[in-house]
Structures are given as structure tokens and as C-alpha cells.
């Protein structure tokens, strides 16, 4: 019975999570809004060899906890009022190597190195926007990443 309930929840239309990208492994994390504030920024930390070591998301004016491993140089994208993240391109090998973020205002920002297998993440329905990020990390950085989409 529990198996059927789990499968029903995973396949229901209320499930925000789509595909996870990267080989995975390590500690799981999820960053999602817990109040009425919209996602207003993303900060990633890049190591010396170009791996994405960790990630943070900003809701309103507050940053989430940092997920991943310590270190790296921080880079961030801050959204303007009314601007939303609408799609994400990325690359990975054993770890997440690159994220390119596209916004509703036609802006594009890239973090990391342009190497590895590519992926493209978009919401399942028009007008949905990024509301959260999840994935896994270990040893040198993020091993997988996925995106939560919903209406703003």
C-alpha cells in the first residue's frame, strides 16, 4: 500500500520536481521556498578546477543555507523585481561543471566550465518558473542537480 501511495504522489500533477541531472551520489539536499517570498537570486561556488562546489538560493532578501562542500569562489545572479528564471542549461561529468541560467527578461548568466555532457531543464508547463533546487554533493562538489518549477 505504501508503495502505491508513493508512486501516486510521484506521478501526480502536484509534483514539482522534474529530472535530476548528473551521476549523483553523496548527501541529498533540497532548497525550496517556505513562505511567500519569490526566488530572487542564485549563488554558486566554483572550485579552482571549475567544479560547482556548492549552491545557495535567495528568497526575497534572505539567502538559504549553503549546500555542497566548503570553499570556492562565489558568483551570483540577482533577479530584478518581476524577473524569473525560466530555463537552465548545464554540463556535468562526475560533478556538475556548468550552469547557464536564462530569465524571463531575456538575460543569461553562466557559471563554471563549458565541459561535459549537456542537459537542458525547463518547466513542464508555460508560465512556470524556478522555485527551488535539489541534488546531491560529495567530496569535490555537486554530483547531481534538479529544479523545482511552479507558478510565480
TrEMBL record:
Gene3D superfamilies: Jacalin-like lectin domain. Pfam families: Jacalin. GO terms for cellular component: extracellular space. It comes from the Eukaryota. The keyword Signal applies. PROSITE patterns: JACALIN_LECTIN (PS51752). This is Sperm lectin 15. SMART domains: Jacalin (SM00915). The gene is SL15.
